[in-house]
Design goal:
- InterPro entries: AB_hydrolase_fold, TEII, Thioesterase.
- This is Gramicidin biosynthesis protein.
- Belongs to the thioesterase family.
- It comes from Streptomyces silvensis.
- One of its GO terms (biological process) is lipid biosynthetic process.
- The protein is of the alpha/beta class.
- It has one domain: Rossmann fold.
- It contains 8 helices and 8 strands; from the N terminus they run E-E-E-H-E-H-E-H-E-H-H-H-H-E-E-H.
- Strands 1-2-4-3-5-6-7-8 form an 8-stranded mixed β-sheet.
- Helix 2 packs across helix 3.
- The longest helix is centred in the last third of the chain and has 20 residues.
Length: 258
C-alpha cells in the first residue's frame, strides 16, 4: 500500500497515472470524480475541504492535461475505460460512488457499466452532472463539427475558464485542442441503453444550461434499473462552481443518507 507523505493529509495528490486522492483513512465512503472536457483532476481539488469528513475524495486524471500534458488525449473509449479501471483499483475497495461532470459523466457511466459487466466492485451511486443523455447527443448538433472560431466561442460561452485564462490567447491555444479532442471522443461515441446499470443514478443540472437543458436529463432514467432522481441548481453549465451551490455538500449528504 502506498503511504502518504507528511503534510499531504487532506490534499489531492497523484497516486498513479489516472488516480489522484485526498486520503481520509477513517472515511465511510469515497467519491471518485471524472472531469469535464479538457479538465484535469485538480478541477475537484476544493471538494477535499467541502465534502463531509466521512467522505474521501478521489479524482480521475486523463492524458493531455496537468501532469500528463505531454501525452496525447484519448481517442478510443474502450481502451480508456480499461486503463482507468486498472489504475483505479486502489480506490475501488469499500463503498464508493462516481461523479462526472459534462463529458466526464459519459466516462463515469461507461466505467460504471464496465465494472458491472465484470461482476466486480461497482459504484453505490452514480451522479451525472450537466450532461444530456447519449441519444440526445447523437441526434443533436455536435460542437466538434463547428468551425474553429465558432467552437472557441461555444466553449467560452459554457464557462469553466477563469477570466485570466480566457483572456490569454496563448494559454487558450494550448487548452482548446484538448477540449476539442474530448468533444470529438464523446460526440462520436455511441452508448447503448442496455445493459442498464443496477445502481441509483442522480442527474444534476444548472437551470440555465443551454448545453444540457433540464428537459434532457430525465431520459437518464432509462439507463438504470435502480432509483433515478434529478437535482436542479441555479446557474449554467458550470453551475457547480457558482457561489451558493454546495454541490459537494449535496453529494456528501446523499452518500451518507442524511
Amino acid at each position: 500500500m502506498r503511504t502518504q507523505r507528511p503534510g499531504l493529509k487532506g490534499r489531492l495528490v497523484p497516486e498513479n497515472r489516472y488516480l489522484w486522492r485526498a486520503r481520509r483513512p477513517d472515511a465511510e465512503h469515497r467519491i471518485i470524480c471524472f472531469p469535464h472536457a479538457g479538465g484535469g483532476a485538480n478541477a475537484y481539488a476544493h471538494w477535499a475541504r467541502a465534502l463531509p469528513e466521512a467522505v474521501e475524495l478521489a479524482t480521475v486524471q486523463l492524458p493531455g492535461r496537468q501532469n500528463r500534458i505531454g501525452e496525447a488525449p484519448a481517442t478510443d473509449v474502450g481502451r480508456l475505460v480499461q486503463e482507468i479501471i486498472a489504475e483505479l483499483r486502489p480506490a475501488l475497495s469499500g463503498p464508493f460512488s462516481f461523479f462526472g461532470h459534462s463529458c466526464g459523466s459519459l466516462l463515469a457511466f461507461e466505467v460504471a457499466r464496465a465494472l458491472q459487466r465484470r461482476g466486480g466492485p461497482r459504484p453505490a451511486h452514480l451522479f451525472l452532472s450537466a450532461q444530456s443523455t447519449p441519444d440526445v447527443i447523437w441526434a443533436g448538433p455536435k460542437l466538434h463539427e463547428l468551425p474553429e472560431q465558432e467552437f472557441h466561442a461555444a466553449v467560452l460561452s459554457l464557462g469553466g475558464f477563469d477570466e485570466e485564462v480566457s483572456a490569454d490567447q496563448e494559454v487558450m491555444d494550448e487548452l482548446v485542442p484538448v477540449v476539442l479532442a474530448d468533444f470529438q471522443l464523446w460526440e462520436r461515441h455511441r452508448i447503448a441503453r442496455v445493459p442498464a446499470l443496477d445502481c441509483p443514478v442522480t442527474a444534476l443540472v444548472g437551470a440555465s444550461d443551454w448545453r444540457a437543458p433540464q428537459e434532457t436529463m430525465a431520459g437518464w432514467s432509462a439507463y438504470t434499473s435502480a432509483p433515478f432522481t434529478t437535482q436542479v441548481f441555479p446557474g449554467g453549465h458550470f453551475y457547480l462552481t457558482e457561489e451558493g451551490n454546495d454541490v459537494p455538500g449535496f453529494v456528501g449528504r446523499a452518500l451518507l443518507g442524511a
